[in-house]
Prior knowledge:
The complex is a heterodimer of chains A (about 750) and B (about 160).
Chain A (H helix, E strand, L loop, with lengths): L19 H5 L15 E7 L5 E7 L1 H5 L3 E6 L21 H8 L4 E2 L5 E7 L2 H8 L3 E6 L6 H5 L25 E9 L2 H7 L2 E9 L11 E6 L5 E5 L4 H12 L6 E5 L15 H11 L3 E4 L2 H8 L5 E10 L5 E13 L7 H8 L6 E10 L13 H19 L3 H8 L18 H10 L1 H4 L9 E10 L6 E7 L5 E5 L7 H13 L7 E4 L16 H28 L6 E4 L2 E4 L6 E3 H7 L7 E6 L7 E11 L6 E11 L6 H20 L30 E6 L21 H13 L5 E2 L3 H8 L2
Helix pairs in contact in A: 7-8, 10-11, 11-19, 15-16, 18-19
Chain B lengths: L1 E8 L2 E8 L4 H8 L18 E4 L2 E4 L12 E3 L12 H8 L9 H14 L5 H7 L11 H14 L4
Parallel strand pairs in B: 1-5
Antiparallel strand pairs in B: 1-2, 3-4, 3-5
Helix pairs in contact in B: 2-5
Amino acid sequence: MAQHPAELKVVGKRLPRVDARERVTGEAVYPADLDLPGMVHAKLLRSAHAHARILRIDTSRAEALKGVLAVVTAADFPELPVGTTIPMGELGYDMWMVAQINLARHKVHWVGQPVAGIAAIDAHVAQAALALIEVDYEPLTPVLDIAAAMAPDAPILHEHVFTKGVEPRPRAPSNVCSRVVIARGDTARALGEAAATAQASVKVDTAHQGYLEPQVVVAQVDANGFATVWASTQGQFTAELMIARMLGLPQSKLKVVPLEIGGGFGGKISIHGEAVAVRLAQKCRRPVKLVFTREEVLQGGSGPAAAALIDIAVGADRDGRLVAIDGTYRLDAGGLPGLSPSLVMQASAALYQCPNLNLQGFDVVTNKPRTEAYRGPVGIQAYFAMEQAMDALCQQLGMDPLEFRKRNASVTGSTMPIGTPFPAIGLTTILERVGEHPCWTDPLPEGRYPRGRGLALGYWRGTSMTSAAHITIAGDGRPMVTMGPVDLSGTRTTMAQVVAEEFGLPIEDIHIETGDSKSVGYSDGAAGSRVARTTTAALVEACADALGQLRKRAAEKLQCAPHEVDYAEGRFLARQAGGAAISLSELMQATLTDGAIVGRGVSTKLPLGVEIGAHVCDVEVDTDTGLVTVLRYTAFQDVGLALNPAAVEGQIEGSVVQGLGWALMEGFDYGPDGRLRNASLLDYRMPTALDVPKIDCVIVETPVPGVPYGVRGVGEVPIVPPAAAVANAIARATGVRVWHMPMTPERVLRALRG
Amino acid sequence: MKTPLTCTVNAEERTVLADTRDTLLELLRERLGLTGTKEGCSNGNCGTCTVLIDGEPVNACLLLALEAPGRAITTIEALSGGERLHPIQQALVDHGGTQCGFCTPGIVLSAKALLDANPRPTEAEIRHAIAGNLCRCTGYGKIVEAIAAVAAAAAPGR
């Protein structure tokens, strides 16, 4: 395997996506585009209450409506006990919770939580039938924010939730699902003795992943009871496990086919109605299509990202060396227990060498939609606090913020917050590159309003988990690749590059697709910046396996031993002088009847490829309106090795713009009844082409040892620094810090007016 | 209630039975099977259902199907002939201007309407022309680059 970048012929090249044509022509098939013979349409009835007990559901009037074919409620599913789990994911999937996301049972915990599903001959009839379902609720007091949920006399959402991480085990249930402490040294003392200190106390509103394709599923059950589910999912195997458990269906009676996915960003890891669609299809014996409206997506149909309250205090000595970080992280999980705060606590303190750490985190439930992962989950919230605290500390010290980072940056081998040493990282190189770049050295041009330049770092750990793939060889000798992970970020292209490189063939010779949940080995979902890395490892193994099998056949044809055969660029060559050669195509044609060549690969325990970035942002702050304009934005990132620089830039640019959206405009606005007041893309504003500048990318390559091609994760970390970079730029422009995100014009103006 | 309706889509006269409640988007996707036009919000906010009506970009979700007769409707399916992509499509391929692809058909049509009316737009004009098309994947930079490249290639030296 070629490893030195200079020797690479296909990997590392700026190639167009192998699946770009069907995207620009509109031929790419998303689940909403499927139309099966006899297909009927489903709708979900959703809770209008944020917190209520379900006393009775009567579906008889809806069932009697002409055109209605089936109605289901939670009573149509086995009741899964708390603690039933399936493997996968940063959020740790508890099936009791997945069931609640699909259909509420006994209680509703947020506005928009589904309580019943209907299949009818068309969507108009299904919609009309929703109004005929009678649900008697006993309304309960909703708990709508972190402070209210943590209050001693707060109404309790879940009687079975006792705070984890507290000794002795609490006797009373709580809305605090878990508490995590990460500490070393004596932080209080170090802060007390520090030459300079700074604090950041931030509030972050909920934001949504904002994928443009709402959730869609099509389910069909054949005469033998075998179910096929076409889904827009980040992981067909996870979806299969979830659907099977919810229905009590053996996994051999179900397959999930992942079609094109119109964006996911973490929001399509869990199922949201897929199991309901299958149950409806079982009941009415017709294919069922369930399409969410945009309002449903935003109003409780699919989880947004966590709101947060985070307090950070930092201190440094006279020389600008960081001595302590104290942090309290309160994360709003929504209506069901969420992510352990541990990962994000570690992430937020990872980039600094600091002898004293005291971090405490709380996972809190409230009567709002159950949150789900969003690109580096909770990273942007935590860094909004951490990097503002660091920037304020630089101001206290009178120190250049880049110099401060250089002085305190983690390096290869420094101790991570969990106590283990950092594997190879390129933070020092990144900071050097920032210091040399015009985005940092150019003077800031004068404008009509105050301008400022902000710097912020970001870290994300990512994960590896499992990817499987296999390669069969077509009769013409070309590799046909089937991989487990779905393509969220150009995976088919980068993985075709890897296979082309390993086979020494042009990329045009590689056919690649994502398999369904029955046609390829188990693979975890496309999440955690893991897919390119882990699937590369699986494919390198699969290529070696296939080439090994081919080598044996070639040796037989060339009448020598397998170890006497060389392979390069599609040809096997006998090594002895004047040796004969045979091409892959000739070999396959000559051995067509010898059985399939199937190279298999799986990667399960790949070393992490942690992601680090530094962002520099110039803003102008309109002091009359509070509007912040981002003038220039440069993202530096260590990617290990860029499999395809265009794809890497695409990930960074998109991720940064999502971060800028949350930084400046995206926030959920809940009313006192727990209803989202801005549940449309007009009122929940995401950045348009007019709201953001071109994002410049600077790619740094510090390979990860033990990972094929040295690849790091790419897609998550670029969303981590933007809010802090913008906030620091605002502070440098105006002398004022905005502690509430998104930093809308109204909030900026309030801050400016003190 | 269903009613027969005749309209001109991609220069072809089509007669279909439409529900009077159908939007133009539903007519295109569900009655005519033209699924290249996407549905992202049904509210005129995201631009994924952009089609051209008499050359102007319009959100198909905001029109009723009953408003279609008498107008020339162009969808993404009409843009490429056989193997050959429209220059805007080719540029999006070459510049990495498509990721998940869900917004792409709408972006292509908004860009076509722009370049048909203004073959040499500034970057600001390009950004303005696609401001009604949300894209959550690319951050827009490579889309803007692609459209600018088409304009530059079509009007060299100007």
